[in-house]
Amino acid sequence: MSLVFGAALSDAHAADPKSPPTPDYQRARYSALHFKPAISKATDADCLACHAEVLKPSVRETSPAGVRAADAKAWYQRTSTYSGTQDTFHRRHLTSDFAKSVMALSCTTCHEGHDPRDEHPLSSVTAQRDGGFRLRKSVVPETTCLKCHGQMNTAVMGLPGPWRETREMFQNDCLTCHAAIRTTRHQVSYLKPDAIEAAGKGNGDVCYGCHGGRAWYRITYPYPRHAWPGMAEETPDWAKGRPTQSEARFQIGTTAQGQEK
User: Fold this and answer.
1) Domain-embedded: residue 120
2) Tell me, what's the pLDDT at 96?
3) Can you list the alpha helix ranges (DSSP code H) found in the chain?
4) CA–CA separation, 37 vs 112, rounded Å?
5) CA distances from 201 to 80, 96, 100, 175, 244 (A)
6) Which of 73, 169, 229, 254 is the most buried (most CB within 10 A)?
């Protein structure tokens, strides 16, 4: 029995263990697993004990407007790395073939807990101290979603135009340049670095899918600028102020030189 469900049993069951256990929403809402530090150690099994529905197939066969899903392509289906029919958000990120091959996402990669007191503005001193509120959002998009769903920064990369228009110039292979540039990449716990590098050879869609091909936002993500062999000592203007390491909770190991393994 999960900690969440165990903490959510009704008072009736606590008084009479023989009575059927029924979830108590308020108790579940304030379960220790929804807060730090407990959520930092929560497993997917802990989360899915109460939230199993997020992985169940539930895509409409027909939209409210009458468009059949089988006859229309969603935006995330427009790169060669996605196959099959339309699917739900969580299933695409956790159980799709591509997600399982190149990602190691878990529930707590995106969900770091929440504070029910901070679901509306100025509701607690914590919200003011930490720089605002997310209005019922248990995920901070700027530090999670934007990592893989921001725009490709073609100007900084020196490309003559958007990747869709120029990829044939590079044989649709990002490693034409990146075999020697920014070679320290994907070294974070929520990705499978070796699998990404292998899949990206000769198929720019593997890279572009997460670096502009499925852009939700009009802005780019300021990726940490990890040092790589042969990297110029001088930091270009566009990179000044950028972090040089990934977030501590996602690091999978560092060397004495400060590079991630």
Assistant:
1) no
2) 92
3) 3-7, 11-15, 25-29, 44-51, 89-94, 97-102, 107-110, 125-129, 145-149, 154-157, 163-166, 175-178, 193-200, 204-208
4) 9
5) 14, 21, 18, 7, 26
6) 254
Tokens, residue 190:
């929520």
Specify the amino acid at residue 44.
D
Q: At a CB cut-off of 8 Å and minimum separation 6, what does 139 contact? A: 110, 111, 145
pLDDT in tens, 152-176: 999 888 899 999 999 999 999 999 9
Domain membership flag for residue 121: no
Listed in sequence order, the residues at least 6 apart from 185 whose beta carbon sits closer than 8 Å to its beta carbon are 178, 193, 226
Distance between CA atoms of 54 and 91, rounded to whole angstroms?
Answer: 7
- Tell whether 145 is covered by a domain: yes
What is the C-alpha separation between 190 and 253, in angstroms, rounded?
A: 13
Q: How far apart are CA 7 and CA 158, in angstroms?
A: 54
Q: What letter represents residue 77's amino acid?
A: Q
What total number of domains does the chain contain? 1
How far, in Å, CA of 103 to CA of 157, rounded? 25
Q: How crowded is the C-beta side of 127, counted as CA atoms within 13 Å?
A: 17
* Helices within 74-178 (DSSP H only): 89-94, 97-102, 107-110, 125-129, 145-149, 154-157, 163-166, 175-178
Q: Which of 134-138, 180-184, 186-190, 220-224 has the lowest mean pLDDT?
A: 134-138
Q: 151 lies in which domain range?
A: 44-58+68-105+140-261
Distance (Å, rounded) from C-alpha 201 to C-alpha 102?
13
Q: Which amino acid is at 146?
A: L
Q: 31 in a domain, yes or no?
A: no
